[in-house]
């Protein structure tokens, strides 16, 4: 799938004045993505909901943690209306990984969202996804669990959990002609999600094209670079200077950091109001935005695969670079010799321009050159 996934013109027309967001966090999760979302301020969720962001349609959010309703059927009303085809357009957001109901023999379910009004039996997350996703103008995931399965989809788990694109199919397209839009993170970096949602809402309003996604359906502009490329410790790696404990400000590759191979913008963006982010505050990167998380990055505190080889290869080069830079640093930490309070001008100033008809005597120019040589 190319970077122009879900380009405009392949789905339902845009230009909506009002849109609903149906947010279901009954996937296998901890609701941490919703909690993280409340820390966003560029744009802030409340600014979007209050219509304070120019160019966006009116937004109605239905999220159980942030809902002003009393819960129960009052909260479920818009979800049931959407199933009946009476609520459109809407964006479906799934939080938490999707379990495999097909591996359950007999009765039972992994997770549910409301009950069937006729039978009183719980309605599974899968039931809702099956009915809402085909009707949704767009489908998004919030967090790594919903995007790729995350912790609940680890090897050996009994639920058969997976990401939403695995469940719907990677060729799924919404009413707008968009694939599933994944915003991974454990939890989501709040601005990353709100920025992506803002782009989606501008697309819904007809004022922007569809957001560009990478081959794992992540926003390219957010996940197109590695942690290492934005890390303020990266120069230590280049110089072969590695931390051996967690109190050091140096590169943490040898004590468990996977930053050189993980796609994430947190070191540059920070976490809240531009502050924080794992390596920025002394933490290692454990790859929580990646499709292979957590299995591919465990044990978390061990040196990453290939870390010993890359560190060994970079050391001779790094040692030479450190030495050469040290020499240059010493040289440029000195003031020029002509900075003094004496009576002579010793900066080497020797103007080549003379007013017409006047020429400095040859002896004077020679004397100036002699002085300049003596200074150098």
From TrEMBL:
Residues 356-376 have a biased composition (Basic residues). One of its GO terms (molecular function) is metal ion binding. GO terms for biological process: anaerobic respiration. InterPro entries: Cytochrome-c3_hydrogenase_C, NADH_UbQ_OxRdtase-like_20kDa, NiFe-Hase_small_C_sf, NiFe_Hase_small_N_sf, NiFe_hydrogenase_ssu. PANTHER family: HYDROGENASE SMALL SUBUNIT, NIFE / NIFESE HYDROGENASE SMALL SUBUNIT FAMILY MEMBER. Heterodimer of a large and a small subunit. Belongs to the [NiFe]/[NiFeSe] hydrogenase small subunit family. This is Hydrogenase expression protein HypE. It comes from Streptomyces luteoverticillatus (Streptoverticillium luteoverticillatus).
């Amino acid at each position: 799938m190319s970077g122009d996934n879900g380009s405009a013109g392949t789905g339902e027309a845009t230009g909506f004045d009002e849109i609903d967001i149906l947010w279901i966090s009954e996937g296998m999760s901890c609701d941490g993505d919703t909690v993280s979302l409340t820390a966003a301020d560029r744009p802030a969720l409340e600014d979007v909901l209050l219509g304070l962001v120019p160019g966006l349609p009116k937004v109605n959010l239905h999220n159980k943690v942030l809902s002003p309703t009393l819960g129960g059927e009052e909260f479920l009303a818009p979800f049931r209306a959407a199933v009946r085809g009476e609520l459109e357009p809407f964006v479906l957001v799934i939080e938490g990984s999707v379990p495999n109901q097909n591996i359950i023999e007999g009765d039972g379910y992994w997770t549910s969202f409301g009950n069937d009004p006729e039978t009183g039996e719980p309605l599974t997350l899968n039931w809702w996804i099956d009915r809402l996703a085909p009707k949704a103008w767009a489908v998004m995931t919030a967090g790594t669990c919903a995007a790729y399965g995350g912790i609940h989809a680890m090897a050996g788990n009994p639920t058969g959990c997976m990401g939403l694109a695995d469940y719907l199919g990677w060729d799924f397209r919404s009413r707008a002609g968009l694939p599933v839009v994944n915003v991974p993170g454990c939890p989501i970096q709040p601005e990353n999600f709100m920025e992506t949602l803002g782009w989606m809402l501008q697309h819904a309003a007809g004022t922007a094209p569809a957001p560009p996604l990478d081959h794992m359906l992540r926003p390219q502009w957010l996940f197109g670079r590695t942690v290492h490329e934005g890390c303020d410790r990266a120069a230590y790696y280049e110089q072969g200077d590695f931390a051996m404990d967690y109190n050091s400000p140096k590169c943490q590759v040898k004590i468990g950091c996977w930053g050189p191979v993980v796609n994430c913008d947190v070191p540059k963006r920070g976490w809240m109001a531009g502050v924080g982010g794992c390596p920025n505050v002394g933490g290692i990167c454990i790859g929580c935005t990646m499709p292979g998380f957590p299995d591919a990055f465990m044990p978390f505190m061990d040196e990453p695969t290939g870390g010993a080889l890359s560190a060994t290869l970079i050391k001779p080069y790094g040692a030479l670079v450190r030495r050469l830079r040290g020499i240059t640093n010493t040289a440029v930490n000195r003031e020029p010799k002509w900075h003094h309070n004496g009576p002579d001008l010793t900066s080497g100033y020797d103007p080549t321009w003379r007013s017409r008809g006047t020429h400095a005597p040859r002896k004077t120019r020679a004397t100036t050159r002699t002085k300049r040589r003596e200074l150098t």
